[in-house]
Amino acid sequence: MNLRSNWDTLPAALACRDVTVRRAHATVLDGVSFAVRAGELVSLLGVNGAGKSTLLRVLLGLIAPDAGEVLLHGEALHRQRRRAIARQVAWVPQHHAPQFPYTVEQIVALGRLPHLGTGFALWRAPRPHDRDAVHAALDAMQIGHLAQRDYGALSGGERQRALLARALAQGARVLLLDEPFSGLDYGHHLRLLDRLARLAADGYAIVNTTHRPDDACNVSTRVALLDGGRLVADGAPREVLDARAVSALYRAHVEQIDVDGQRFFRAATNTFATDDDADATAPSASSHPPASTR
């Protein structure tokens, strides 16, 4: 299979090549090469502990790889200043606990810091276009009514929307989102899917980690699968995600349903058999279908 088809074609907004990350005696990422380009919405799937969050942190420069390199618009990431990186790449973590009490508006306004000479200007004399960016982001995530609320008092889903608004206010064209749908109710889940698709159509480069193969298959422009720290598939959603691949990835028995041009997955009748039965019949991790060459 060709897992590097996205490396040597069009210039990448953000990419890593042959990245390996080790912790203690474990290899968390093993020779991963991955790229995202302007206009792409890439969904990264894998079981808990597969290395998804670690890969995002490597791409952001929060973790230095033990081997390999990361490139932002063709330049080595480690040679670029943090402020310059933050103007180009925005990050939405899976968990966020600020050290100080902030209102929602202040959390979103923190996205403007990379564009300021000092953080004090953000609070003392915010520039009109900074205020406009913050208000536009609040409106985009439909949390304008929460602007003066204590961020720490929000529900998990409301916090997630505030962090997404902060990323939009930042003005970066590369978005790295670690399980952005976590805690969202169904309505806001659908709205965020639509928002991400629209951002990609507008030229943003977006990577999101998810455990929802339905969303990945029907909304993403590309899907990548991580298994045991290795990139085992990377390509067009319909060519990567089918019942066999999803079953192998999650060690569960899954069947697919294709309806009106969309693909959905559900538990097969023997998904929740006994552990002995599952060990005997579950697809192996090596049974992923090859990724397509683009």
From TrEMBL:
SMART domains: AAA
Gene3D superfamilies: P-loop containing nucleotide triphosphate hydrolases
Pfam family, one: ABC_tran
Residues annotated as domain ABC transporter: 14-253
Molecular function (Gene Ontology), one example: ATP hydrolysis activity
Nucleotide-binding recorded as keyword: yes
Listed SUPFAM superfamilies: P-loop containing nucleoside triphosphate hydrolases
Keywords, sorted A to Z: ATP-binding, Cell inner membrane, Cell membrane, Membrane, Nucleotide-binding, Translocase, Transport
UniProt function note: Part of the ABC transporter complex HmuTUV involved in hemin import. Responsible for energy coupling to the transport system.
Family of the protein in this entry: Belongs to the ABC transporter superfamily.
Protein name: Iron complex transport system ATP-binding protein
